[in-house]
Amino acid sequence: MQDSKGWTVEQLVYVSRSVRGVNSAIGMSDILAEARPNNARDGITGCLTAIDGRFVQVVEGEPDKLDDLVNRLVRDERHTELRVLERRTVAERAFPQWDMLSPVLVTAEIDDLRRLMRDDSPGGLDDFIGPLQTALARQSEVLHEARTLSGGPPPEASNDDEAVQTA
Ligand SMILES: Cc1cc2nc3c(=O)[nH]c(=O)nc-3n(C[C@H](O)[C@H](O)[C@H](O)COP(=O)(O)O)c2cc1C
After folding, report:
1. Check: CATH 3.40.980.10 for 9-153?
2. Phi, psi angle pair for 18, to nearest 5°
3. Which CA distances in Å does 66 have to 7, 44, 116?
């Protein structure tokens, strides 16, 4: 399958353990700052979060670019025990406008993701994407209201809108 630019798009989700015990978007600001320009260059989009000192990341892009990223990720000493849970070809990206986002999560989403990240969980891409997209939709809604109240321009959500995660 191909996206609107005619590329084949694949999506993968992995979990790993943070060496520094990262639990917030602030704690991974170095990673996000590195990821975003690379991903913009490579046409990679996705979502990254950290819960209980473990990362979960959904990445999507052309197969070659995903292979390159996975090769870099497995060599990165900021995390260990990287486990790819699912990789598949998709018709559409789940996070088309995000070079890499770490959304603000509420307790229910954190609980869902925590359960899915357990070693014995059969969770796959759709299970992870659900709570992440819910968090994103809520964030966009809040931004929309804030901008409407302030009389600002109509919102177009982007990485610049990011707030700090609550996990
Ligand atoms: C949890 C985690 C997520 C990361 N996500 C990305 C990403 O989405 N894109 C990216 O280019 N690098 C990402 N990185 C950084 C890469 O592992 C790597 O350091 C970076 O791509 C630069 O690689 P290079 O020094 O070989 O060029 C991530 C690292 C960690 C620990």
Report:
1. no
2. -75, 130
3. 13, 8, 22
Q: Is the CB of 14 under 6 A from ligand 1?
A: no
Give me the helix-helix angle, 29-42 and 63-75, nearest 10°: 150
Atom of ligand 1 nearest to the CA of 72: 17
pLDDT tens digits for 77-94?
A: 999 999 999 999 999 999
Question: How are beta strands 9-18 and 45-51 bridged, if at all?
Answer: unpaired
Taking the centre of ligand 1 as the mean of its atom positions, its distance from the CA of residue 122, in whole angstroms, is 26
Q: Whose CA is nearest to atom 10 of ligand 1?
A: 35
Domain coordinates in residue numbering, the chain: 9-153
49 C-beta closer than 6 A to ligand 1: no
Averaged over 58-62, what is the pLDDT?
98
User: What pLDDT digit, counting tens, does each position of 4-42 carry?
Assistant: 667 799 999 999 999 998 887 778 999 999 999 999 999
Please report the atom of ligand 1 found closest to the CA of residue 100: 8
Q: Which residue has the higher pLDDT, 55 or 162?
A: 55
